[in-house]
Design brief:
Shape: globular
Mean pLDDT: 82
Oligomer: single chain
Largest sheet: 12 strands, antiparallel, barrel
Radius of gyration: 21 Å
Length: 353
């Protein structure tokens, strides 16, 4: 069974971060679909593991636009285009300690992201006095909020594995509405920041944030059925966001899930993955007018996607590639994406006895 667990690149209760989102806070805490292919309910044999996800979304669009005077949450806004790359290095410790019948593990992540944002500034003439059909763009590297996972517990129940975890996102990213390199959000368009001569003291480019200006708390439950090479898993997340005190904005709570059906034969793994994201409530904003935090219409996001999985176990390292096709997106940026996951066992230099 240990060989099967490693071949499936087991765990990562953890790689949870950053998928671009709509409204003030650009990034979703859970990088949707990133855990496809993993046995969501299990942890690997005792030891340290280095995990790296290379996540690329080359052609995201913002969904939610007004058509013929009516707002439609599923129509792409042709004035905003986003390409994003996220690198997620993870250090995971599977302790070998047994707590209440469960195997204990912990992890820490420090994601980095690159964004290329293109905006047709014609739509925003109240802020930029540009010519008709004028496109501006900007590239930015940055560090996302550090994520710590102090508790991962996995129970074995015959062929089933059940995992519970608790994750925290720290408010320490490099660029956000609170610590922007270029100055602050465009008036009425907090999805991005603007620089240039039109707004004094800024550098002439348009950027997407690299991180959120809030704290995040996410409980996580994973369930897996592992039998004769089969892995059928569901990884479930619920995220709470604190208020952004710099912009008086608060993201709505989100539910996310990654699903896996794979079969491992020898060193190869083949299968199908799917993911969903559903914002439970609208975002809220405090305009400072005495009415407090007010629900913002058309900010409740939803995303659904699906695609193939292929993996190879080099022994001891392993690689897994996932490609997801966007099925439906509402009030959110969305599109096809791919992910390459590397898992490297680092041994167990400090075994628990």
């Amino acid at each position: 069974m240990k060989k099967l667990l490693l071949a499936l690149c087991l765990v990562m209760a953890v790689v949870t971060v950053v998928t671009p989102a709509f409204a003030e806070e650009l990034w979703d805490f859970h990088l949707r679909g990133v855990n496809e292919g993993l046995a969501a309910g299990a942890v690997p044999p005792a030891g340290f593991y280095f995990i790296n996800d290379f996540y690329w979304a080359p052609s995201y669009k913002l969904y939610g636009a007004t058509v013929n005077g009516s707002y439609n949450s599923s129509v792409a806004n042709s004035n905003i285009k986003l390409a994003g790359y996220v690198d997620v290095p993870v250090l995971l410790w599977s302790s070998g300690i047994n707590l209440c019948g469960a195997s204990y593990a912990a992890a820490i992540l420090q994601p980095f992201d690159f964004t290329n944002l293109r905006v047709n500034t014609t739509e925003f003439t109240n802020t930029l006095t540009q010519g008709f059909n004028s496109w501006e763009s900007g590239n930015q590297w940055g560090a996302y909020n550090t994520i710590i996972v102090p508790v991962i517990l996995s129970w074995k129940l015959c062929d089933f594995r059940v995992k519970g975890a608790l994750e925290f996102g720290l408010n320490d990213g490099t660029t956000s509405p609170g610590n922007s390199l270029a100055g602050g959000p465009a008036a009425g368009n907090p999805f991005y920041q603007i620089g240039g001569a039109k707004l004094a003291g800024r550098d002439g480019n348009i950027y997407a944030w690299s991180s959120n200006d809030n704290w995040q708390i996410t409980p996580n439950v994973g369930i897996s059925w592992l039998h004769a090479g089969w892995n059928i898993s569901a990884d479930l997340y619920y995220t709470w966001y604190t208020k952004d005190t710099d912009t008086n904005y608060q993201n709505g709570d989100e539910f996310s899930a990654d699903y896996t059906i794979t079969y491992t034969c020898g060193k190869w793994t083949f299968g199908l993955g799917a993911a969903q994201q559903n914002q439970i409530q609208n975002d809220k904003f405090n305009a400072g007018d005495g009415f407090g935090y007010i629900s913002q219409p058309n900010t409740k996001a939803a995303n659904y996607e699906m695609g193939p999985i292929i993996g190879y176990n080099f022994g001891p390292c392993s690689l897994m590639f996932t490609y997801n096709f966007a099925l439906e997106t509402q009030n959110e940026v969305g599109g096809d994406w791919c992910n390459l996951r590397l898992v490297v066992p680092l041994g167990n230099p400090c075994p628990i006895k």
